[in-house]
Amino acid sequence: MKLIKRDSYTDSMTGDTITRSERLSLLAQAVLRRWSFVLAYSVLTFLWWIHPTWFGDHPGNDIRWQDWASYMALLIESLVGIGMFGWARRDSVILRRLLAMERAAEQRDEIITAMLERQPANKEPRSDA
To answer: How many Cβ atoms sit within 10 Å of the Cβ of residue 45?
Structure first.
């Protein structure tokens, strides 16, 4: 079986083209941003506080758990950051396109206004009575 290396993917919700790292970030966020993950992580934390020896820790020494919690916070925020920076870049591209369209519309309006001002005023229709 031959694996195909893809440089871009399509976001299933927006249809935007996203990079491989953004796709991985979205997949990881889909796992981490669930109530089941928060609940499981909270239960593990609670159990560690009550019975640290179950996790190979000595009573009163919760440094490893604090390190793990700090690492998880760093990991989650990094994953969110990767996605946010990608979305911000795409938003800026779209905003530039909208500004270009707005400028083009303003120029078109100026041209139409100038053309209308050059036309002679319509004469009143003659009434042959």
So the answer is: 14
